[in-house]
From TrEMBL:
Region (Disordered): 355-436
Name used for this protein in its record: Glycosyl hydrolase family 4 C-terminal domain-containing protein
Cofactor: NAD(+)
InterPro entries listed in its UniProt record: Glyco_hydro_4, Glyco_hydro_4_C, Lactate_DH/Glyco_Ohase_4_C, NAD(P)-bd_dom_sf
Family annotation (PANTHER family): 6-PHOSPHO-BETA-GLUCOSIDASE (PTHR32092:SF5), 6-PHOSPHO-BETA-GLUCOSIDASE-RELATED (PTHR32092)
Keyword Transmembrane helix assigned: no
Length: 542
């Protein structure tokens, strides 16, 4: 058990379920749980996946990793979703419906129309959303029945759309991505400081974000960072240095699909898909995992993607479950939050003296809109992903009068705070008791953060995280150079979610026509037909 604080009882050890536990990326997560056991004290970890052959290999390796690092927790695995969920305090979703084969299609058939082929962006991202949302909502309903108090942490791509589906259906859920923590670690290296000293003003939508400020000890050092290391950062992003200078910000590498779309399409025509690369890596990883002497995550796993995903996951889960003693900031979980800032009754307020999960015992901090990096996930572009195949029963597409209810349709000026869906997490900006919150970068409801978006849009920003959920910190307005694209993609995501929930070619066509990377009648028509043809086995309405 964790140490006590202020005479309070020790924090309980917990059970965590990982749906998609047969992913080849799971050992990264296991390694983080083992190293950061004082942050997230697991008594039981259950890996759930219908792919029993992979699950046996990865479960056995997970036990060896725990044993090698002296973790006392119990690891089990099962292909029975309901049994695995029983008694869980938190459920991590890292699944890939259709596996790498479906991903390979997502990354190839859009190229025939001259559009980017990518698993979370453009037509391929829409295909993944249509396959994934019904399965995730079915899993979430079963979480609600088997462990109704459990938090759902979503790593499953496309995170923004999937998290919006979960929240609008009243589930206790927060979305997580590893882009922010990756930038934090890279900037810390370039600046020669510890990661926990670096705070990011990271904002936008999932896979559509910019680092607008980089703070060290409260001071924005982004201008100095770009002056000294702009060429290296631009090379890492594969974007022109002049673009970073013009933006005055560091864009996510996913923005290359928007800023350099045609050049990316030409590149993708000349090489194998990322899915093919990942599939080859996975075959090698599974051979390594079968070695009974292996008791650590292999170096090859670093090529699978999703760097620092485990640190981000541990930090966010610990904040939601409140397993961190007050005033204690454990070493190593640098991927989430920072400074333990509380929102006081007056708004953003000042920082409390409570440490976030960044290895720093709190003290006064500045720059209330920035966060020491929040959580995310990833592998092969974003995701630590597994292949639960089609083993889970498909979620019913809501129709008129369906008790789940589709997301409300945003209308002009619809930025007021609507009542929460019964049973949903409270993501309003309620005052917090100093010492009760951590700050992390997560995906959650907008709720007025960006005035040009509806409340039920899901954004990726710094937020205070408590056992009640995530509440975005107040942010300076976005300039039109950024807000225009954010608003455009948000409209697409709304239409994409409607297509995923209700089905139908017309809804698929509308989402494609609205997407800023497609938006042409002929392309949208052709892509709609191809999407349905390539995904018919996963679309109950097709």
């Amino acid at each position: 058990m964790l140490p006590t604080s202020g005479g309070r009882p020790p924090y309980p050890r917990i059970k965590l379920a990982v749906v998609g536990g047969g992913s080849t990326y799971t050992p990264e997560l296991i390694d983080g749980f083992a190293r950061l056991r004082d942050v997230l004290p697991l008594a039981e970890l259950v890996l759930i996946d219908p792919a029993t052959d992979r699950l046996e290999l990865i479960g056995a390796l997970a036990r060896r990793i725990f044993a090698a690092q002296g973790h006392p927790g119990r690891i089990t695995w099962t292909d029975d979703l309901d049994a695995g969920l029983d008694g869980a305090h938190a459920v991590l979703l890292q699944l890939r419906v259709g596996g790498q084969a479906a991903r390979n299609q997502d990354e190839t058939w859009p190229l025939e129309c001259g559009c980017v082929g990518q698993e979370t962006t453009g037509a391929g991202g829409l295909a993944k959303a249509l396959r994934t949302v019904p399965v995730v909502l079915d899993i979430a309903e079963r979480v609600r029945r088997r462990c109704p108090d459990a938090w759902i942490v979503d790593f499953t791509n496309p995170v923004g759309i999937v998290t919006r589906a979960l929240l609008t259906h009243g589930h206790k859920a927060v979305g997580l991505c590893n882009v922010a923590i990756g930038f934090q670690r890279k900037f810390a290296t370039l600046l020669g400081v510890a990661p926990e000293q670096v705070e990011l003003e990271h904002l936008g939508l999932n896979h559509l974000t910019w680092e607008r400020a980089v703070r060290v000890n409260g001071d924005d050092v982004l201008p100095e960072l770009l002056a000294a290391h702009g060429d290296a950062i631009a090379a890492h992003l594969r974007m022109p240095r002049a673009l970073l200078d013009h933006l005055g910000a560091v864009p996510s590498y996913y923005l290359r699909y928007f800023y350099q779309h045609d050049a990316v399409v030409r590149e993708l025509h000349t090489k194998p898909s990322r899915a093919a690369e990942v599939a080859a890596i996975e075959r090698q990883l599974l051979d390594l995992y079968a070695d009974p002497s292996l008791a650590e995550k292999p170096a090859l796993l670093g090529q699978r993607g999703g760097a620092f995903y485990s640190e981000a996951a541990v930090g966010l889960t610990a904040s939601l479950l409140r397993t961190r003693p007050e005033g204690l900031a454990p070493e190593g979980a640098g991927g989430a939050g920072g400074g333990g800032r509380a929102l006081e009754a007056g708004g953003a307020g000042g920082a409390t003296g409570v440490g976030g999960p960044t290895g720093v015992v709190g003290g006064p901090t500045r720059g209330g809109a920035a966060a020491r990096v929040g959580a995310t996930r990833g592998g092969g572009g974003h995701g630590a992903t597994a292949e639960p195949g089609g083993a889970h029963r498909a979620h019913q597409i809501p129709g008129p009068g369906d008790t789940h209810g589709a997301p409300r349709t945003p209308g002009p000026g619809n930025t007021h705070r609507s009542p929460q869906t019964p049973g949903s997490v409270d993501t309003h900006r309620a005052p917090q008791t100093p010492g009760s919150v951590d700050t992390q970068i997560v995906n959650t409801f907008n709720n007025g953060t960006f005035s040009f978006l509806p409340d039920d849009a899901v954004i990726e920003v710094p937020a205070t995280v408590t056992s009640r959920g995530a509440a975005p910190l107040p942010l300076r307005p976005l300039a039109p150079l950024f807000s225009g694209l954010v608003a455009h993609v948000t409209a697409y995501e709304h239409l994409a979610l409607e297509a995923a929930l209700k089905g139908g070619r017309d809804r698929v066509f509308s989402a494609l026509l609205a997407h800023p990377l497609i938006g042409q009648l002929d392309h949208a028509n052709r892509l709609a037909d191809q999407l349905i043809a390539h995904n018919r086995e996963h679309l109950t309405w097709a």
